[in-house]
Amino acid sequence: MPSFEHLLPPSWKPLVTAWLDEDTPSFDYGGYVVGEVEREAFLLGKGKVAAVLAGCPFFTEVFEQLGCQVEWHIKEGETFEPVKHVATVRGKARHLLLGERVALNLLARCSGIATRSKQIKDLARGYGYKGIIAGTRKTTPGFRLVEKYGMLVGGIDPHRHDLSSMIMLKDNHIWSSGSITTAIQQAREVGGFSLLLDVEVQSEVEADEAIAAGANIIMLDNIEGTELVSVARNLKEKWQGKRSFQFETSGNITEANLQERAINEIDILSTSVVHQSVQHIDFSLKIQMPK
Predict the structure, then answer these.
(1) Opening angle at CA 270, ends 207 and 283, nearest 5
(2) Given this model, what pLDDT does residue 224 score?
(3) Cα 119 to chain center, whole Å?
(4) Contact 61/68 with Cβ under 8 angstroms?
(5) Which pLDDT score, from 0 to 100, does residue 7 have?
């Protein structure tokens, strides 16, 4: 059975090592107090609302690097109601506490993004939207892998991961190169056939130019309401059978205006609401007293 963990690159485990190094750069004074007695700790999913569990590989790796063992009691991607005994971690007391905050922070943010992603996707599907729900590249430097992973677990498209994974031409690219057509031609010369080209436009006229120049995806940035519907319908009708492209809507999308943006004339709905300013999921790790 495929697992999202199998997507992770070779560089992900050294990231965990770096996070542990950052948290304990010198002496571990608290660890000195508790020593190396073997203990068992319960991971509890708390908070006040149902949440999606995400980030299990990162949590597990933190403790494995410290010589501890993690036993999961629910599967990644499952929704749980608080308070839930999510996992049990076993190891030396000081090692449990060395990994505690790093592991909880990872799990809290990743699960928060997965939970919010699922909420937005479910809401859009409830409005009848059949297209792609995606995140954005507005992620935290050094933490992008975890945040994109959370989007996947939450059931949405993570969008491009970096500047190299697709060509996206935004307003600054276009203004700097002189025109939409020129920017697309120059990008195609170096990007070749294997990269999709996503172009941000501000109007129907700009969208038409981008389609004519060969863009694969037309991002209708901050175009809303009846104008969004009109632009998409007009241009799909004009270019039917002549060009193959997709429309993307992005910019200022919130839960409050999702219904008017989640229209089936649009193929992709991308929003940072699923990962920026997301409420983290509350977890705690409680060492159990020996019986």
Answers:
(1) 170
(2) 86
(3) 13
(4) no
(5) 96
Averaged pLDDT for residues 217-243: 93
Long-range contacts formed by 193-200: CB under 8 A, 24+ apart: 195/166, 195/167, 196/166, 196/167, 197/166, 197/167, 197/168, 197/169, 198/160, 198/166, 198/167, 198/168, 198/169, 198/248, 199/168, 199/169, 199/174, 200/168, 200/169, 200/170, 200/171, 200/174, 200/250
d(CA 39, CA 68) in angstroms, rounded, equals: 10
Residue with tokens 């999961």: 72
Instruction: Work out the angle between the directed axes of helices 56-64 and 93-126 (0-180°, nearest 10).
Output: 170
The pTM score is 0.95
Residue 148, CB-side half-sphere exposure with 13 Å CA sphere: 19
> Taking 90 as the threshold, does the pLDDT of residue 143 lie above it?
yes
H or E segment to which residue 63 belongs: helix 56-64
Catalytic residue among 138, 148, 236, 242: 138
Q: Is 236 among the residues known to form the active site?
A: no
Reported as a single tens digit per residue, the pLDDT across 149-185 is 999 999 999 999 999 999 999 999 999 999 999 999 9
Please state, in angstroms and rounded to a whole number, the distance separating the CA atoms of residues 136 and 79: 24
Whether 268 and 232 have beta carbons less than 8 Å apart is answered as no
Asked if 261 and 224 count as a contact pair (C-beta separation under 8 A), the reply is yes
Q: What confidence score (pLDDT) does residue 251 get?
A: 86
The answer to whether 128 and 258 are in contact (CB under 8 A) is no
**Closest residue by Cα to residue 167 from 144, 194, 141:** 194
What is the pairing mode between strands 38-45 and 84-92? antiparallel
